[in-house]
Amino acid sequence: MSYVKTSLSLSILSLALAGCGGGDGDSSSTPSTPGPQPVDISSYTVIDGYLTNMLVFIDSNKDLRFQNGETIIGLTDAQGRVDASQINIMPDDQVVAEAITLKNSSKFPAQYQRSYTYDQDAPMNHFSDPFSLATTADNAVITPLSDIVVRLMNEQGMTEEEAKSFLLELLNKLGIDDIYQNHILNDDKVLKKVNQILLFSRMVDPDGYEKLYQELIALIIDIIQEMTAEQIEDHRFIIIPNRGPNTIAVVSAEQAALIQAQLQQQFSQPNFNFDVDFRSLFIDPDTNEDIVYFYGDQINAMGIEISQEPTDGVVSFSGSFDGSQSFDLSVMKFDISANGSRLDPKIVNFALSINGGEVSDNQKPVIQQERLEGLQWLFDSIELRQNQNISIDFETAFLFHDEENDPLKYRLQTNVPGMSFNCHVADCGTAVTFSGTPTDQLTNAWIKIDTNDGQHGPESSASSWSEVAKIDLGDITPDSNVDPRCSAYTSFSTERLNWDDAANYCASLGANLPSQGDLLQLHTDVETRSVCGWPDYHIWSNTSGGGSNYWAFNNKNYFHTTWDKSREFEVTCKR
């Protein structure tokens, strides 16, 4: 059983009482053997692409579905990550991530019910059908393959190692030797394609997925072996067993933003009568079919008249709202494969909050700290270097929450010369590319994002904008001839330098003069690719952080000597 982590003081107090004779029983009895300890996992990541808004929990009854009373770990962020550091998760626990969709959202706690799951590979497309993915407690990456491991354990009585060996034996033909790795971070495109086809096969044929693991994986192996390298790399290209090739239909983020704004504006009128054209909402290269399906049961129950021809993507709305209302509208289109097969539906949920035609006590958008932390985590993994071109894609969607669900316009700023933003939609509310070539050395670089809901005065007024979400980029590393893949390097000098000069020289390269211990570690790492430019003779260090104790480390003879100030020497800088 799992519990939220508690303070260590209770255990210390219990030990103190026992030492003082507290408690009942014979004090000379043999101490009990400690029980199992929680696994050392700080977070879980759920991926095909990064799966956002998956509810992650400890599956106490091992049915792979969330039930009231089960321990919730949290909701995944834009990097598919959920923090598990505050939860005790035991070795025998199974951890499950379940998708939140319009069909199953009512079973979840209220704060999660409108956080619909989507894949960062197609961020505007919410999943239409519920599904879950599982893993064992000590595996930090949750994928369709980790899910099959758990199912083989639960359904066929295999151990975890037996289930992994079973899958690896099948996947060995594709050169896969680790089914638990993060295929995004490790850029393993073949493993990603296996997981992708597994997930889409499950969407199309859930019964077949549940029963035929071995047959399904064998088909997937044959499919991938016939793919070109370009097809494997293209996350939109997929071949589903028995359904043929398909370029995955996606949602037009720009069109979705325009429709969201139109719905919000029109429904806010005291009396409304308007049409919305949903036909251009989806992009599917495999078909010219323009049939979309609209679902508006919630507002239909409120007395709003809705009309739509069965095969027409234009929907008419008329009526009025009495007071404030919150509801969802859903639009769905089936993904059609190149051979005409109907695959899984693509769905967009428009979450709307209406104030009965009047705006009163309107609140400014507020930062979603979990989303901001996810963006900070993304940029923490990236180094900006002077005169080195870089391009980074990220999402601003859901960074801010607007209580009234007003359409938002985003503003992005940076203090890095040479870098700029390219917004994929006019209001910068979805995908953004941050790209360019930093031209200057800089400390404390940043990106700042704020937003405007159009309800608090003209955009030219500073008070009309929200609070600022700041992303720290660290320092812009100075230009040098050093291979950027190196984690440590050596620069040479023919000058007679003192400690301050040497330290400043390293600082000018974005590095530090290492301590004596650093030098020993650098030598230990010399056979790895993390160290570049290892010197032939002496490298220098200061062991006291200043003053007169200077040392040279001879990497051939492994000894230290005091610094002869009359000699010229090499300066070693550690990045």
TrEMBL record:
Residues 1-18 form the signal peptide. Keywords: Lectin, Signal. The keyword Signal applies. The keyword Signal applies. GO terms for molecular function: carbohydrate binding. This is C-type lectin domain-containing protein. It comes from Ferrimonas aestuarii.
